[in-house]
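Troubleshooting: if your tokenizer reports a length mismatch, compare your output against this known-good record of 591 residues.
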Amino acid sequence: MRKRHLRDLKQEIGKYLVMFLLLTASIGFVSGFLVADGSMLQAYHDSFEKYHVEDGNFTVQNRLNHAQIRDIEAQHVTLYELFYTEKELSNDSKPRIFPKRDKVNLACLMQGDMPKQSNEIAIDRMYADNNQLAIGDTLTSGTQAWTITGLLALPDYSCLFEKNSDTMFDATKFGVAVVVQDTFEAISSDNKTFCYAWKYQQSPADETEENARAEDFLKFLSGEVQLEGFIPRYANQAIVFAGNDMGSDRGMMIMLLYMIIAIMAFVFCLVISDTIAKEAAVIGTLRASGYTKRELIVHYMTMPVIVTLVSALLGNIFGYSFMKNYCAGMYYGSYSLPTYVTIWNGEAFVLTTVIPVLMMMVLTWMILRRKLELSPLQFLRRDLRRKRRKKPLWLPDKIPFFHRFRLRVIFQNIGNYCILLIGILFANLLLMFGLALPDVLDVYQDNLKDNMLCKYQYILQMPYDAMDDDPSLGTMMSMLLFQFDIQTQNEDAEKFTAYTLKTVDTGYNSEEITMYGVQPNSQYIHWKHTDGGAAVSATYAEKYDLHVGDAITLKEAYQDTCYTIKISDIYAYQGALCVFMNQEDLNAMLD
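Known-good structure output:
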């Protein structure tokens, strides 16, 4: 019996080889992705402590004096200077240049050396790749020139957002760089931004507490200094965007793996059924000779399980060696991440090795147990039908003879045709998964252009000194100046409110929902609002199966505050998940 395994492998080498290669390739890719994703996520989270990442930063008009620093640090925080300047370069880009850091947001050197001389500079790795720059090249700005000595990643710019309000980052025209202190003072004398990073002396327990402390800190700062910007770490897209994106890709890859495993299990079922049909006489002889059903089940299970096990093991080796670097390169092509170290991923091993082997064992055992329930005599006669039809299927005599004959052939083999149908559906599902994605993205891009609410949107940020709850004369003057500054003579301009909330208890991962507060009779949002009602975009309604009259609950991103909104209309907008309300109603709801 054991000798038959090698003979079977030799006779069916083509069949087993195809399944082996497909399993090895798919498991290798998914394993490599999960390992790279897990390792890079771990490196990303470790970077907060390893590189002493800030808890937030704020920008002021003038450099703080010692008294101001002392008063601010009395709020149980530690301040660090994070000054920078921006320079237009000859390659039409505008990097943000910092002096060398030694206390906060420490740089991760990827290649080369840190700058040591006044004519040297280290630049972001991704910015260098996008602008075809390498170590030894020269950057010029007017009469100034610097030689690139190293490529680095700054943990506070893992995603190269120039402004935190930007909806998309640009790692070609914008980047970050580091020079020595003397060089920085020379090039920033006429254009220096006074940015300060802070670290809490005692870290917040969770994001809710972090949000509350950041709001209290903002209120204190707005009364002490002239703020131009304030970004806590949890709201800083340059820091958190990459980590959120890496975690979200994992679900799609696991779904792809499950699809492939299901297809391969289906293929092995067909192989086993075909083998039993071909070797029915042999099985009948062995059963009649005294072999038990359990021994035959183990015998026929052996080759599929061995092929799956070898494919899984080699696929994991392939994933840990080659594919992880390829998958990590996809992330490095989008984000400026620090150097990572490959970490053993036990979950990836279970998903790509243990589960496929167990699925194959259980599935083949169930099929073989059912197939081998027939008597030895039935196997010897090659009669593998479990139920015998006593009478032929009745069909009306009015149907022509050949039509009845064809129909009887179809009905007698209905099980085989169902299996064929399932196989075709699985194959088309994989084909659609691979071929439809580019077209889906193209259609989404076209829809986004065609469904723009307007040609331009400007989001204006209120000055921080005008946000103070204290109704002082200075606050009122600042608010009046702000209102005067945002007036425009453009008749097409229309004020609106924009805010972001998150979904709760939807069965999906929490998603951001954009709230639009629009004016009555808006020339851009053609929706007749009702008192207290809201219109959800068609995309939002379709995804969450929402209808007119339903109520949705949304919450503040880092607070426990929730809002319940009644849907009065579905607005034909496909561009985003959003809610439209009367501007006064939305402003009142958000206080």
